[in-house]
Write a structure and sequence with these properties.
The structure is a homodimer of 189-residue chains. In chain A, 44% of the residues are buried. Chain A is built from ten helices and no strands. Chain A has two domains: 3-57, Orthogonal Bundle (Arc Repressor Mutant, subunit A), CATH 1.10.10; 67-179, no CATH class. Helices cover 72% and strands 0% of the residues of chain A.
DNA sequence: GTCTATAATTCGATAGAC
DNA sequence: GTCTATCGAATTATAGAC
């Protein structure tokens, strides 16, 4: 374990915090370096550019549960609990979300993350390809909407909820998106 | 109707478009002025500062329907149709949402808009004050999540949905947040 | 009312000493 | 590896000519 590795790790931690708190433009390399207590030029030396620094700092795995190993009627419940727990105080997610609101390359990264991790999960339980993509997209509207209102906009009533209450409210919604009838054929899940 | 009024209106239109497309930092006064085909100094003359320009450009009414005039079991449906229709191609909303992701004063504005327009709507159909605030907050997670994924992140499956399909999917979710049982007392709506 | 010129900052990135 | 110094570019905002 070299000294440089520890320095790089410290930079990444500070970068996540600054990007998550301030977004891309306001999170300056100078501010990130100051928080990591190193020289700003070291950031450039190790990561090449600000954009590459963000790419390194905002890379992560959702580590979604395998729904095929679970009873279908508890999919929403399991997924809600998992995501709420996994996202609580997660600078990496908030950093990516905040930056993606203004930087195209970060939004593209978010789309890639969605296509690579959320869509495949749903594809394994929904045979129709187009329907699977739709269900995954709807899941994203609710989950990213939660992250946005709770961690970025910080709407008071959303912040006030406990993770247990959140999971309880979200569970039937995710279940609806995963198993609900597709509009056109009318019925209820 | 003075020339100056037309100029101000043109600036506001251009500002909404630039803020909605680029966020706060990248939407420069120069770029906004160029799009409105006027001199950058005129923007300062009329609005004083960039922050005041955003405040003027991102002010709007949600014009939510009065749910007390509607049968309770169609609340979700009416609200879903209304919001989906009202938000389609709405630069003002997207501008505020995008800027709120990085600028504290815009996030505060979003919280004010929520507290002033969404919360009161729910308060009229939910007697318990705390529960009403929670329901309103949950509504916001889904509706702002839709705006985020469809208009800002542009997740392909979410963009691909028609407004009718969207309303059909969202309707039971909004109904759940408006009328569903509060976690703790278990039952279904 | 409109525009030019520029002040005052700030930032990402680079060059090079040690 | 680490730091100083600085370049070049871009920004908001202002002062003032016409």
């Amino acid at each position: 374990m070299k000294r440089s590795d520890r320095t790089k790790a410290a930079i990444l931690v500070a970068a996540r915090e600054r990007f998550a708190a301030d977004g891309y433009a306001k999170a300056t390399i100078r501010a990130i370096a100051a928080q990591a207590d190193i020289d700003p030029s070291m950031v450039m030396r190790y990561f090449g550019s600000k954009e590459k620094l963000l790419a390194a700092a905002a890379s992560f795995e959702l580590e979604l549960p395998d729904l095929t190993a679970i009873r279908p009627d508890s999919w929403g419940d399991v997924l809600a609990r998992h995501l709420v727990a996994r996202w609580e105080r997660n600078d990496t997610l908030v950093a990516l979300l905040r930056v993606a609101a203004t930087q195209d390359f970060a939004a593209e990264r978010m789309r890639t993350l969605f296509a690579g991790q959320v869509a495949p999960l749903v594809a394994r339980i929904e045979p129709d390809e187009k329907t699977a993509a739709t269900r995954a997209g709807l899941l994203a509207t609710q989950m990213l909407g939660l992250a946005l209102t709770r961690y970025v906009l910080e709407l008071p009533p959303v912040v006030a909820l406990t993770t247990d209450e959140l999971a309880a409210w979200l569970s039937p919604v995710l279940q609806h998106y995963l198993t609900g009838m597709v509009p056109g054929s009318d019925s209820k899940e």
